[in-house]
């Protein structure tokens, strides 16, 4: 069954990617709509793949690295689709889908981590993790949008206005999409972190349990608040804000990898 | 039920001829009325734009005779000698007329390939003729089809998607940076013809605020009044450059009007808000060194012309896709037309056979002795049943014929074999 959902998800994501590329290159509206439709189908199939995987391993998807990656890919696709519907803009899909596909494939093709500690339980914990991964996905999306912004801005500056530039969102819209995405990420990480403290308090009777991850998470929070503040400032709006957004995501990657693997006591894969 | 088209356009006639044969809306109504009153056309529609004057119609007679009558009418209506007009006129019939109209509505026959205005002009011409009652079932179907083709070509191809003039290319580029321009401001430097074109494009996009600066205050004032803008004094650069998001410059000057140092200062004063500048002046009005300023986008006339040329090439690449849509709709229309033709031919044939049968029975029954009126009625009914069966079976087979060309050929064959004396 898991195999079936894996294939369905893969087919839907690949099809969606191809359709979004078609929309970006040839400008067919139907191709863009097909991309959105296939992405929606891929999200449903991916959800069932995650569910099956969790049932098969008797654990939550974020218990190990591959599960966390798969959940990250799913939430990235979900955040993108929500943003696409909100801003009515499909031409970014071709840039986001490769990341969704990469996370999905990496997660599915890597073996489950047998050394992982027994999973923590509880609703607060589940929301803490899911919201944290959602925040990372939203920050990842804002990073992709910022990269597109810088690319498009460069093309416009250098007067290289080819076919694709006419179909990309305007710089102003890319900026707003990136800010929307960061806002989703900030709200998620704030609630997720608070729930983490609630869960620790319930588990140990002590709300504060020092972990280097807290410091980095606080740094991420401050960095993105700083970005949102500067992105609304005319002097920073545009390329500078986009560069900052990309830099901020480097901190997220650092938190996701180096901090989790080498410094954190309680966080491994999220 | 054939279609005839007589007209001329930018390819067949020079502007000196086109302007003599163009129709105002009132003239189009008058011509439609007269053409029907004189029995030249049953249904009629006049399409007149700056690049074409065409009369579409459904004639009561054979199309070629109607085309000649239409040419004469056009000549007399506009008081232009037929000898002078004839070389510029084209005549299209049936499928060629349908195809021509569908290409016109798609922008494939326009002087500027893929222009958007023609679809609105076709819609307006149809509205006028429809409200006047000059169109009938055939032209209604034909023009509704044309509007559908035009819309499909615009939505499914990129034939009309790219800007094709320097002014529209500049405004579209501004939209690449700012998105919708409804909340933006523009400053126009210089009050020449090209400035007017750009302002007109900006106004079409509902730009929120418009400022005009010109050495001659009077011309600036006229332009500002025409487009509901505000005039800024020529030497008030400091405040002028803090206001707009878009600057359009077409000043006649030997030296650049705005140097990098000015603009650097202005960008700092506006907090580095993005500024898009179209420098349409020759020699250039804006110091090219300013192009590297942060959030400053500078396009001169050559940059914009190059974009227009690229777009022209892209549009030409879209023509085969647009032609495919046109072909699809021509086939649809002809299928509908052939179905109507078939119904009409079957109905006429039925009447003819009934008349022949009545005459046949009258002639032969007199020779048969002892035939009572009841028996004669029975014989008539039997013959009618047989004729109906002979008529309906092939008609049903023809109705289901998938190959349009074959279907039309067979309908024509029936008409020629069984109804040689009739005109349709």
Task: Describe the protein.
- The complex is a heterodimer of chains A (270) and B (424).
- Helices cover 79% and strands 0% of the residues of chain A.
- Chain A is mostly helical and 270 residues long.
- Chain A has two domains: 1-108; 120-270, no CATH class.
- In chain A, helix 3 crosses helix 7 and helix 7 packs antiparallel against helix 8.
- Chain A is globular.
- With 424 residues, chain B is an alpha/beta fold.
- Chain B folds into three domains: 4-156, Beta Polymerase, domain 2 (2-Layer Sandwich), CATH 3.30.460.30; 166-308, 3-Layer(aba) Sandwich (Rossmann fold), CATH 3.40.50.720; 336-418, no CATH class.
- Helices cover 57% and strands 12% of the residues of chain B.
- Chain B has helices at 15-18, 25-37, 63-77, 82-85, 94-106, 117-132, 137-156, 166-178, 193-204, 217-226, 237-240, 260-269, 301-365, 373-399, 404-418, and strands at residues 4-9, 43-49, 52-58, 90-93, 185-189, 209-213, 230-231, 246-249, 275-279, 296-300.
- In chain B, strand 2 and strand 3 form a beta hairpin.
- Chain B is elongated, with a radius of gyration of 32 Å.
- The mean pLDDT of chain B is 88.
């Amino acid at each position: 069954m898991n195999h079936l959902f894996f294939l369905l998800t893969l087919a839907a994501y690949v099809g969606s990617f191809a359709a979004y590329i078609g929309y970006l290159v040839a400008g067919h509206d139907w191709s863009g709509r097909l991309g959105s439709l296939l992405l929606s189908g891929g999200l449903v199939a991916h959800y069932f793949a995650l569910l099956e995987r969790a049932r098969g391993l008797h654990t939550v998807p974020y218990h190990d690295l591959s599960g966390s990656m798969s959940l990250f890919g799913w939430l990235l696709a979900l955040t993108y689709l929500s943003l696409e519907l909100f801003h009515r803009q499909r031409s970014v899909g071709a840039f986001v889908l490769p990341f969704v596909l990469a996370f999905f494939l990496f997660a599915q093709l890597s073996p489950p981590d047998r050394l992982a500690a027994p999973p923590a339980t509880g609703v607060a914990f589940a929301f803490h993790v899911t919201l944290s991964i959602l925040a990372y996905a939203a920050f990842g999306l804002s990073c992709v949008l910022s990269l597109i912004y810088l690319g498009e801005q460069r093309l416009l500056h250098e007067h290289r206005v080819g076919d694709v530039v006419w179909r990309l969102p305007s710089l102003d819209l890319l900026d707003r999409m990136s800010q929307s995405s960061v806002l989703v990420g900030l709200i998620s990480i704030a609630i997720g972190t608070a729930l983490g403290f609630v869960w620790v308090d319930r588990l140990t009777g002590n709300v504060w349990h020092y972990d280097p991850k807290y410091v980095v998470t606080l740094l991420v929070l401050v960095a993105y608040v700083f970005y949102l503040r500067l992105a609304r400032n005319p002097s920073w709006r545009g390329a500078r804000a986009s560069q900052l957004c990309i830099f901020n995501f480097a901190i997220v990657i650092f938190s996701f990898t180096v901090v989790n693997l080498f410094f954190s006591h309680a966080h491994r894969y999220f | 039920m054939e279609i005839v088209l007589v007209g001329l356009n930018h390819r067949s006639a020079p502007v000196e001829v086109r302007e003599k044969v163009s129709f105002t809306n009132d003239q189009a109504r008058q011509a439609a009325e007269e053409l029907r009153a004189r029995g030249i056309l049953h249904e009629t529609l006049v399409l007149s734009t700056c690049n074409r004057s065409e009369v579409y119609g459904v004639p009561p007679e054979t199309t070629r005779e109607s085309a000649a009558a239409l040419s004469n009418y056009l000549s007399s209506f506009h008081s232009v000698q037929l000898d002078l007009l004839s070389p510029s006129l084209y005549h299209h019939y049936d499928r060629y007329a349908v195809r021509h109209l569908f290409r016109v509505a798609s922008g494939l026959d326009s002087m500027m390939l893929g222009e958007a205005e023609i679809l609105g002009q076709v819609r307006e011409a149809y509205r006028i003729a429809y409200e006047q009652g000059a169109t009938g079932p055939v032209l209604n179907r034909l023009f509704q089809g044309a509007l559908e083709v035009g819309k499909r070509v615009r939505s499914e191809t990129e034939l009309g998607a790219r800007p094709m003039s320097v002014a529209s290319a500049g405004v579209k580029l501004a939209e690449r940076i700012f998105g919708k321009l409804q909340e933006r401001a523009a400053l126009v430097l210089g009050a020449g013809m090209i400035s007017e074109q750009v302002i007109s494009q900006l106004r079409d996009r509902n730009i929120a605020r418009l400022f005009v600066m010109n050495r001659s205050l009077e011309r600036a004032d006229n332009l500002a009044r025409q487009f509901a803008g505000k005039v800024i004094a020529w030497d008030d650069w400091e405040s002028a450059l803090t206001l707009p998001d878009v600057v359009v410059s077409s000043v006649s000057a030997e030296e650049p009007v705005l140097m990098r140092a000015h603009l650097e200062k202005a960008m700092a004063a506006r907090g580095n808000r993005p500024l898009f500048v179209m420098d349409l002046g020759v020699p250039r009005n804006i110091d090219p060194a300013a192009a590297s300023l942060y959030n400053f986008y500078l396009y001169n006339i050559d940059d914009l012309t190059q974009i227009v040329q690229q777009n022209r090439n892209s549009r030409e690449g879209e023509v085969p896709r647009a032609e495919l849509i046109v072909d699809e709709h021509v086939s649809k229309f002809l299928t509908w037309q052939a179905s109507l033709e078939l119904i009409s031919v079957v109905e006429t044939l039925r009447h003819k056979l009934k008349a022949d049968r009545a005459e046949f029975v009258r002639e032969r029954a007199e020779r048969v002795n002892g035939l009572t009126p009841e028996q004669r009625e029975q014989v008539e009914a039997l013959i009618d049943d047989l004729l109906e069966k002979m008529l309906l079976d092939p008609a049903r087979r023809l109705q289901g014929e998938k190959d349009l060309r074959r279907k039309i050929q067979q309908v024509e064959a029936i008409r020629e074999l069984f109804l040689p004396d009739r005109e349709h």
